[in-house]
Every structure is written in C-alpha cells, then in structure tokens.
Amino acid sequence: xxxxxxxxxxxxxxxxxxxxxxxxxxxxxxxxxxxxxxxxxxxxxxxxxxxxxxxxxxxxxxxxxxxxxxxxxxxxxxxxxxxxxxxxxxxxxxxxxxxxxxxxxxxxxxxxxxxxxxxxxxxxxxxxxxxxxxxxxxxxxxx
Length: 143
Hints:
Elements: H1 2-10, H2 22-32, H3 40-50, H4 56-61, H5 64-77, H6 81-85, H7 104-119, H8 123-126, H9 129-138
C-alpha cells in the first residue's frame, strides 16, 4: 500500500486522504461499490486494452499480439470477482464478458507466471532509459 500512497503524492493528492492499509482500501471500495457501473466508455476502454492498435508489421510479424492479449487478460482477471462480473456476457470474454470460469487463484498463478517470465529478461530490456531518467528526476533512483 505504501507505493500507492507514494503514487498519490506524485500526482498531487494529499497522502492523508488516500487508503494506506488494505483495511482502509477495502472500506473505501465497499463505500463506492454501489455507485459503480459499466459504461459504454468502460467497455470501449476494455476493448482498446485487449486489442490495441498496432502497426501491421508488429501485429503480424512479431509475438506482440498474443503476448499483449495474454498480459491484458491476466490484468483483467486480477480485478476482484465482483468487478469482473460487472462486464456481463459478450464478445471477447476477457474485455467484455469477464473470463468465464476463471478463479482468483488462477489469475494469481497467471500473474506469477508473467512476473517470472518477464524477470528472466535482461534488465536492459525490462528497464528502459526513460525509467532511469524518471526515477532520477523524482529522486527515486536506487543508491
């Protein structure tokens, strides 16, 4: 939760006004959940995340599409069950209708698999120069 408080501070929120424990986050979500709903914009955003526009050479000549689809599906599956279910039925399963039959432990297992695979990549691929420059500007660079 500490990293979320830091993120809130970095975008200009008063850290005292954001949840700093999982209990506070649970209470906040419980308080806003009755007001949440899936809008056409939310569905369009989900479609965009699952099927982003890509140049044809990248789309057809690299593993970008299946890799991105798997990563996006995992991210979607990591939402709370109640949030996944809000998308109802529909085309695409993942972006529009939730992931039928996916359990929380399967989503967690998929996320751990992604982390293991991505952490096996060389740091020069995982962490571009823009990340180091941003960390330096924000005073977050490792000593």
